[in-house]
Specification:
Shape of chain A: globular
CATH class of chain A: Mainly Beta
CATH topology of chain A: Jelly Rolls
Number of helices of chain A: 1
Number of strands of chain A: 8
Number of domains of chain A: 1
CATH architecture of chain A: Sandwich
Helix content of chain A: under 10%
Order of helices and strands of chain A: EHEEEEEEE
Radius of gyration of chain A: 14 Å
Structural class of chain A: mainly beta
Strand content of chain A: over 45%
Distance between the termini of chain A: 23 Å
Largest interface: A-B, 38 and 38 residues
Largest sheet of chain A: 7 strands, antiparallel
Oligomer: homodimer
């Protein structure tokens, strides 16, 4: 039997909206999500979990209350649990998020940028 | 403060041996490991956890008892817990593994390809 690889590029072709993470795989109780980022997101934090950002294409900035990190393609950063952060990108950027099932994109902040959770593509 | 991104390419420059996973980041109780693969690994399984393979560069084959999957750059696959698998690569391939802290590369099989665990670079 020929099992099927999950292609990150092919999955990105399936959606175009920004700040709407799409689940592409699950390992135990963690999910791999793809997202397009453009413009500024909202300040938020995740009280219960660290959150991994891996840039697939483009440049992502994550602001913190005491500084920031800039990530290019093939670079990653893990935001510790409870740390306020605000992702942004001047031009559209493609990222992979790795985080526990049920993690909400806006954390404890909520608001109209809150995306549907567990949206598989 | 300028926080530092983790660059996958830069981390790969720090080691050359094959089948010796190196930890580059930790999220909660999960680790991100880089490994070089060349030749055939051993059949093994992980009774307690799924295991994620993401190919950074090259081509990886994962054999199963009932088939296989072939992964190119930017492709991933999650081997379910308990499923016997044997990674291999005809020419050297760079991969990222994502799995719980303490996961041993040879699973329950052991042997001389068993690598030191929790080896950070």
């Amino acid at each position: 039997m020929q099992y099927q690889a999950i292609s990150i590029d092919e999955k990105f072709k399936k959606f175009s909206e920004v700040y709407q993470p799409k689940v592409i795989a699950q390992m135990n109780d963690y999910q791999f999500k793809l997202a397009r980022v453009r413009g500024e997101f909202v300040w938020h934090s995740h009280a219960e979990t660290d959150e991994t950002f891996l840039v697939i294409d483009g440049e992502l900035t994550i602001e913190f209350r005491d500084g920031n990190v800039k990530l290019g393609s093939g670079q990653m950063f893990i935001v510790p649990r409870g740390v306020e952060h605000k992702p942004s990108a001047e031009t559209e950027c493609k990222i992979m998020l790795i985080e526990p099932v049920g993690t909400v994109n806006t954390g404890g902040t909520g608001g109209n940028l809150t995306a549907p959770n567990d949206a598989w593509i």
